[in-house]
Amino acid sequence: MIKLIAFILVFALFMVFIVLNLEHRSDVSFGLITFENIPVFVSVLASFALGMLFSIPLSFTLRKKKKVPAPMQTPAITESETEDKIKKEVSPYGID
């Protein structure tokens, strides 16, 4: 539902932009070819569409696989460390 409302708001903003720029015209040049008296909203929408078109292949190639977290590994304890722990557990009040 929220996505639908967001889409409607964005679409409404595009419509307002188009209505406000209907009379604004400019020349669009591609080097050798020049298009004259093109409405500004047409060039903006064409740029947006081309950007989306070129981003589609990138979205498929840059997908990352979800990594499964590695299980927690406990460090190896040597025999001397276990003996130290046992000694500490035997004398909790510092009495040998």
Any key phrases for this structure?
single chain, 96 residues, mainly alpha, two-stranded antiparallel ribbon, 2 strands, 55% helix
Characterise the protein shown here.
This protein is mainly alpha-helical and 96 residues long. The chain has a domain at 23-60. 55% of the residues lie in helices and 11% in strands. The protein has helices at residues 2-20, 40-61, 79-90; strands at residues 25-29, 34-39. It has a two-stranded antiparallel ribbon with strand order 1-2.
Contiguous helical run count: 3
* Main structural class: mainly alpha
The counted number of beta strands is 2
Radius of gyration: 33 Å
Write down the overall geometry: elongated
> What is the N-to-C order of secondary-structure elements (H for helix, E for strand)?
HEEHH
Mean pLDDT: 77
In the sheet with the most strands, the strands line up as 1-2
For the biggest sheet, the summary is: 2 strands, antiparallel
Give the termini separation: 70 Å
